[in-house]
Amino acid sequence: MAALAIDVVTLYVARSEIQRAADAAALAGAKAMADSGITTLPTSDPAFTSGSVQTLAQSMATAAITAVLASPNNSVEGFSVAPGSPAFNFSTAPGSTPVNDPHVTVTLQQTGLPTFFAHIFGTRSATATASATAEAYNPANTSSFTPVAPKSVKPWLVANIDPNTSQPFVNPATGAVESGVIANPDFWLTADCQVGFHHRCHLASNPNPPGLIGSPKELQYLPAVVTANAANVCQSSCGSGNDYENSIACSDMNPYTCGGGSPNAQWDMTDPVNPNGPASSAAQTTDGVECLIHATGTGTGQGQDTIVFGSWPTNPLQVNSSVTANQVTTSSSIVAIPIIDVTTPGAFSPAGPVTVIGFLQAFVEQINTQFNPNDIQIKVMNVVGCSQTSNGAPVIQGGNASSPIPVRLITPP
């Protein structure tokens, strides 16, 4: 019996190993689906109705799953596991998983696992199997949503207007996202603060709320009130400024809630936060962004990663590492930026709480004085939208670091 127990324990270990491999593969596949942009799209978007983005999401997820299972860290009893054929769910039928919440299921099987003492019963090999399902949840395009509260969000409260179309990114009542937003060109963010005026942000267009200015149009933002958090994670060369600068350069662990129709953020009018202010105030934004994207100065070609737009959704948005010159699946230049409802009464006269109704997942290309001080050039990769109506489910804490879209396992361990 003691000898047989060795075989039983060995097979339990193999079962645990294959379950961990399935979990890791499913999570990697779900992240790849989120990166494809599929969760952002309303079902009327041409990229979805044509089936192009579904094909892209499946190919990206399959490639990620295969790469994860090829790692020696995900072997079973020292042997690599074949990825099999992942199952995907992009259904939009009533009662089914909507497009904003795609699922991927990974089922693994490892045959021929050796036995030792079970040979006396004629059993010379065994099989271990496991399955895991993960989701990439975006509350967008649903009238009743499960609240999300991402962290590591950058303190730029951007107006809810797409500079490329002059249409809202998000419908604040329904959470619907503008069609075609991922395929639009990049654009610039600029602070809605008076240039060189004091060390705090006074609205440049007071009493009007942030919006679009200039030609080509720039999207205005307001600096958010930031509080210190002992859990913040900073690079070794960063984290030396005030809370606002550190929130840009570091991973800010303060969560930002989304939607619900009530104010849930505050814009900052305190000294010395002003991206357009005198040199000492303006330097907080400049230094924070340069540190975030590993740039040695303003403009392009300063050591930061780059993005290739390609022909989405036929091909994914591709990020190239400035260090290795290889394509990478994540980058410090990919950030989450809150979108605010600029119709909130009293929020901008002169200052008050605002309502975050969504998030941009964006790639920061550079910081420069293109049109105004501290202009930030970005490319939209995803949009999270939240309606006014929560479904009462617990808040999903997730979507940390480079994405506001939570990715999680939804099968029991």
Could you characterize what this model shows?
The protein has helices at residues 2-36, 46-49, 52-70, 243-249, 279-293; strands at 87-89, 103-114, 125-136, 144-145, 156-159, 187-191, 212-213, 218-223, 265-266, 306-308, 318-320, 327-328, 334-340, 353-354, 356-368, 375-385, 389-390, 407-409. The chain has two domains: 2-136, no CATH class; 139-404, no CATH class. The chain has 413 residues and is an alpha+beta fold. The chain contains five helices and 18 strands.
Label this structure with key terms.
four-stranded antiparallel β-sheet; 5 helices; alpha+beta; 413 residues; 18 strands; six-stranded mixed barrel
Structural class: alpha+beta
Distance from N terminus to C terminus (CA atoms, Å) equals 29 Å
Give the helix level as a range of percent.
10-25%
- Give Rg in angstroms: 24 Å
Explain the layout of strands and helices.
Layout (H helix, E strand, L loop, with lengths): L1 H35 L9 H4 L2 H19 L16 E3 L13 E12 L10 E12 L7 E2 L10 E4 L27 E5 L20 E2 L4 E6 L19 H7 L15 E2 L12 H15 L12 E3 L9 E3 L6 E2 L5 E7 L12 E2 L1 E13 L6 E11 L3 E2 L16 E3 L4
Parallel strand pairs: 4-17, 5-13, 6-8
Antiparallel strand pairs: 1-2, 2-3, 3-18, 5-8, 6-16, 7-8, 9-14, 10-11, 11-12, 13-15, 15-16
